Structures are given as C-alpha cells and as structure tokens.
C-alpha cells in the first residue's frame, strides 16, 4: 500500500510539473484523480448537488490559476483540499441570509439521486432504509457548525489522517482532536436513535 | 474510575491514541459501566453511519466542462505545446528554419561580381566582358564548378557538376561533363539546389 502511495505521488508530481507549464492534458488527469473527492467534500458540506458541482469546478479553476504558487514540499492533496474547504466555508457564509425552502427541496432530490445510483441491487425495503439513513446522516452533518462539519467530513468520509487535516486547515493537531471529539458527540446525539 | 475521566479515554481510543495501560483501564471500566459502554457504542455507530454515506460521483462531462472554462492558452504556448506533441515536425521545423536562414542569407548577400568555386581555379579562364567562366578545351577540372552571376562555357572536361547561378551553362561540342549541368535563376531554385546538396551530403551512398 505504501509503495502504491509513493508511486501515486510520483505520478502526481510529474502531472503537476507538466500542468505548471500549461499542459492541459496533465491538468485533466489531475482533475480525474480528485474530482470525486472534491465533489464529495463539497456535497457533504453544502448538501446540494448543483452547488457542490459549482464549488468543485471553482476549486479546479483556482488550482489551475494558482499552480505556480503551489509548493511541492507539501502534498498536493493537502493544497487542493484546503482550497475546496475554504470555498465551501465561504459559500456557506454568503448563503446564510437567503437560505430558502427551495434549497431544502433540492437537498432531498440530491439524496434521492445518489441513493438511487448506489442501491442497484437492494430490495425495496433496503432501499428505503438506505435512503433514510443517507438523509439522516446528511441532516446530522448539516446541523454541525461548518468548522466541525468540515473536520468530520475530512476525517470520516474523505478518510484523512489527523495530521493531514491539521495541514489542510492550518490548525494545531490538538485543535483538530478537540473538534473531532465534539463533532463525534454531536453526531452521536443526532444519530443515537437510528 | 470516574465516568467523566473515561469519556476522554473513549475519544482517545477512537483516535487510536490510547496507550496499552490506559486501554486496559478503559476496557475494564466498560465491562462494569453500562453507561460508558453505551456511550462508546453510540459513538462507534455514529462514525459508522457517517462512513457509510454513499460516495457520489460528478457527472461524466465534469472534466470537459472544467477544461472549457480554463483561460484560453496563449498563442506561443499553444505553438510550444503543439511542437512538444510532434517532435519530428518540431525537429524538421527547426532544421528548415536554420537552413532557409543560411540559404537566404547566402542568396541575399551575393554581390553582382562573378564568383567561381572550383578545385582547379588556375585552369579556368574568366571572360569579364561577357561574364563567362571558360573551361578551356583540353583541360580537365576535378570536381564541381559553381559560378554565380555569370555563365559557364565548357569546352574541356569536368568530372563533377557544372552549375551556373543566375547564368547559363554552355557546352561546346568537345565538352565532357561527368556530373549534371544546372542553371539556377530564381531564389526558389537556389534553395532547392542547396537542399538537394544537403541531401547529397547527408546521404553517404552517392556513387
């Protein structure tokens, strides 16, 4: 596994070097590697498919525009996750005042859409359970304050280490741990009766 | 052990930070304390629920749409990139550029005075009034004769080519030319001639 990660990083480094010189094919390959991870993060942060797609797109446009500032002493994934997380949090801040019922409906549609995709071989009963679970999880996440939500998503959906989350958010690891503890407690409170 | 203290250990356990000693304390406590056991189970279930959240995917055309939104590449970059993708064409282009550079330079730098290039200049006669280089009858010139801004009149023998640039090649009845005779008048022909020469130089198998 470690060898795999190393060679992955090597491939990535080559792609980044080429993309820095303006090579679009290399950049397209970088998008392919990260598109679902970034989309997933954005979707779990904003709970809306269309908006998540916009954020993911914006993330890659910013990555392209700022490639020359990327310092390859750090992991590329750390950098791209940081850009995406900041965009999600900024978006949330701007959105709050005009949060409308329409968006809640869209949120439901989004959940419906992906649970349909992910549950091809389930019985109808299982489907309903899965969909309910999905909605409940998304709901529990969306009730967390963004600074907790982002960390819980990075830890348990993106499956990142505490160290990497600390690098992404530029916060000390002790802060990350405290927030994870609180985030876990909050989720426990909301998912206890499932 | 107090449950309050245990809550901290439970989180450390979930983060994989608990050492063996504290792990033992926690496990012992969980065996006897229902409340903490339930707390731990609920936290683990909450994590499992979040982890089970379906992984969703972007639409298939996502990458293309991002690429379409990138700022247009600069012309110089597009050219450089195109060259990078076609290394043979790039090499040919550089070659041609250099060659036309030196060839046209040699074309434009010429002066109207008659110029002769030959290995046996001493055997040649030059008639300045007619602007003609003469290979007298009975003489034998080794190699090529190239005359610029003038004509060549061959009465004797030439073992190579006879070329007149901006001039004519006259062959007398006694002339013997082993190679070709050529008259070059236009710049394109000149370039063509130079390129042919390069080709001949590059190809070693000329009999």
UniProtKB/TrEMBL annotation, chain B:
Transmembrane segments: 88-108
Superkingdom, taxonomy of origin: Bacteria
Gene3D superfamilies for the chain: Anti-sigma factor, zinc-finger domain
Domain Putative zinc-finger residues, every copy: 3-36
Keywords attached to this entry: Membrane, Transmembrane, Transmembrane helix
Keyword tRNA processing in record: no
Family statement drawn from the similarity comment of this UniProt entry: Belongs to the zinc-associated anti-sigma factor (ZAS) superfamily. Anti-sigma-W factor family.
Protein name (record): Anti-sigma-W factor RsiW
Organism: Brevibacillus fulvus
Upper lineage: Bacteria, Bacillati, Bacillota, Bacilli, Bacillales
